[in-house]
Each structure stands twice: as C-alpha cells, then as structure tokens.
Design a protein that fits this description.
182 residues; two-stranded parallel ribbon; alpha+beta; 4-stranded antiparallel β-sheet
Length: 182
C-alpha cells in the first residue's frame, strides 16, 4: 500500500501539467459518503474513499493559486424505491449539503437490473472548448434483490452511460454495454 500511495502522490504534477500551464482547468473526483464517515463491514472500501478525499483536499490546496480547481463528489446511499439512482447535492463548505432536483434522482436507469452503482463522472478532452461530460455506471441493484451472493455471480452485466454538455441536462441512458462472464 505504501508504494501505491507514493506513486499516486506524484500524479497531480503529471495529470494537471497542461492545465497549470494554461492557468485554467477543472478536475472532478468521485468518491463516496464512505470517504466522510465509516461503515461496518466495508473497511477496504471506506479506506480507499477516505484516501481519495484526503488526496483531493491536498491536491486542491496545492492547485489553489494556479487557476485549476479540484472538486470532489461524495454520493450517499438513500434507502427508498429509487435507492440506486443518481442524486445531486451541492455544498459550499463540504459540511452542509442541499439536495438538487427537489431531492429526486436526476438520473434513473431502466436498463438491466435497473440500478446505478459505482458511477464515474468523466469529461471528454476537447482543448478547453466546452465539451461533453459522461457518467458511466454499472446496472447492479442490491436494493431490489437483497442477495449479495446472487449479485456476485449473476448481477451487473451491463454498463450504463449518460451524456451532458452542461452537467444540468442529461441524455436518457442511451445505451448499455453488455458484459459477458466466462
């Protein structure tokens, strides 16, 4: 683990070099509410999310006067019929949060298992001319099935993708990429 942390520690200077030279850039890291508090029976997952939160805070401080910003998104699990979907919240201080979209999910999957888990927010590189954002997630739903054994052997056989040009309006989950397991 120490070797991995040391390797990651050098990444900001390589990844943001072009942004620093241009004195402009936006980085968004996706962690989890598990990076802000602990949960039982999830030590490795929680540790990895705490690491990303700490890493992001340090890199954001290092980049503070360069014109490059780093933001961190920490989605949280909400027990409801719409549990495993994408909700947006905003915070000005990282301690208090306000739900967007009146607390309703912004992105809902009707594909595969109808869940949205392990999402990643990505931005297409286009030379700083606006561009396209993409959220990629698995279709796994634990809430609808409540069976981890089934989830491990038979669940989540698709990747769901949404696209946006402004982070406000999103496409329908336009396609799913079927995954096959031997």
């Amino acid at each position: 683990m120490v070797a991995e942390v040391r390797l990651i520690g050098h990444a900001p200077y390589r990844l943001e070099a072009g942004m620093i030279e241009r004195k402009h850039g936006r980085i968004v890291n996706m962690a989890s509410s598990a990076g802000l508090r602990g949960y039982p029976y999830a030590a490795a997952y929680v540790a990895s999310k705490h690491a990303l939160v700490g890493y992001s805070r340090c890199v954001a401080a290092e980049l503070a006067k360069t014109g490059v910003t780093l933001n961190l998104v920490c989605p949280h699990y909400v027990e409801s019929p719409m549990t495993e979907q994408i909700y947006f919240v905003i915070s000005r201080d990282g301690r208090t949060w306000t739900s967007l979209n009146e607390g309703q999910p912004v992105l809902v999957s009707k594909l595969g298992e109808k869940g949205v888990r392990d999402p990643f927010l990505l931005r297409a590189h286009d030379g700083g001319k606006g561009g396209k954002f993409v959220i990629i997630a698995t279709d796994l739903s634990i809430n609808l099935n409540r069976d981890w054994g089934r989830a491990v052997t038979k669940g989540s056989k698709s990747i769901v993708v949404w696209e946006s040009t402004d982070l406000v309006k999103w496409s329908e989950p336009g396609f799913e990429i079927p995954l096959s397991f031997a």
